[in-house]
Design a protein that fits this description.
It is a single chain. This protein is an alpha+beta fold. The protein contains two helices and five strands. The strands form two sheets. It has a three-stranded antiparallel β-sheet, with no helix packed on it. A two-stranded antiparallel sheet has the order 1-2. A hairpin with a 2-residue loop joins strand 3 and strand 4. The longest helix has 8 residues. The relative contact order is 0.17. The mean pLDDT is about 80.
Length: about 90
């Protein structure tokens, strides 16, 4: 499973904020109040370049552009999905 996360650019799932694992990574526990934000559809959308996860705070919105507090601008945006519990 871990190589698939690397291929899709989603990082190391063992390092996700809500994941607590044993040192040998044989056992893991997800501890958070909301649903874990990785599902098959989400994973495939990211892997095929149809979805991008962005961790930032939205500062303002203009036509087809999201302006983030980090200074980054996401352009050509026509759909926004807010995912809770991903950290």
């Amino acid at each position: 499973l871990q190589p698939m996360y690397e291929i899709s650019g989603m990082g190391d799932p063992w390092e996700y904020h809500a994941v607590t694992a044993s040192k040998d990574r044989q056992h893991a526990q997800v501890t958070q109040a909301s649903r874990f934000g990785i599902g098959d559809v989400t994973f495939l959308a990211v892997a095929y370049g149809k979805c991008e996860y962005v961790e930032d705070t939205l500062k303002r919105v203009s036509r087809h552009t999201l302006h983030l507090t980090s200074g980054r601008r996401l352009e050509e945006v026509t759909i926004v999905l807010k995912s809770l519990g991903l950290l």
